[in-house]
Design brief:
221 residues; alpha+beta; Nucleoside Triphosphate Pyrophosphohydrolase; 8-stranded mixed β-sheet; 3-stranded antiparallel β-sheet; 19% helix; 36% strand
Amino acid sequence: MPAVPTAHWLPDALKARFATPPVWQPEVERETSFSNRKPAQAAVLVPIVMRGPEGAQSTILLTQRANHMSTHSGQIAFPGGKVDPQDANHQAAALREAQEEVGLAPQHVQIIGEMPVYVTGTAFWVTPVIALVTPEFELKPNANEVQDVFEVPLSFLMNPAHHRRHAFEWQGAKRQWFSMPYQEARLGPNGQSDVVERFIWGATAAMLRNFYRFLVVNPAA
């Protein structure tokens, strides 16, 4: 399948696509359930950081969850969590969680739309909230929830050449999921370059795969 053209993720193009969505179908909508607890409504912010001229080098801001978290510990995720009773809607929950987790102030965030609900195996019904983020923000990650924050270029995530599909049998059921391993070049504490693998998989990769499907489809189809 083709990569998403850069023109499709420029800010004005993204706004126009959410204002008049194409006819499309999410590729992945739910995981095989392995939890007996009551389903919980959740929301995540999909923060598109507008980098480069006119947003042509935009990235997505991701977190690595703290290892002591009760669910999805150590995994790469969007900022987000359960919808609380005081939240006006899913968008409000996503904004609140992003500010609590990584210190992303709402004044840097412009919400442009939502993606279809994704149901995790741990019984979270997750609404992805898509937002444009101005790059002038200063993050303050909450160490109790997040052990790292980083950005991955949309040019990488929206290219299916980097999407891997996995499948295996577990407890009598077949499970399938996507992964998008990303090699991030960083400067180490000694000033030397280092490479860190960001293994994006599970619910985060599935929602990104759906976002790819949403952007790559021909609006006239």
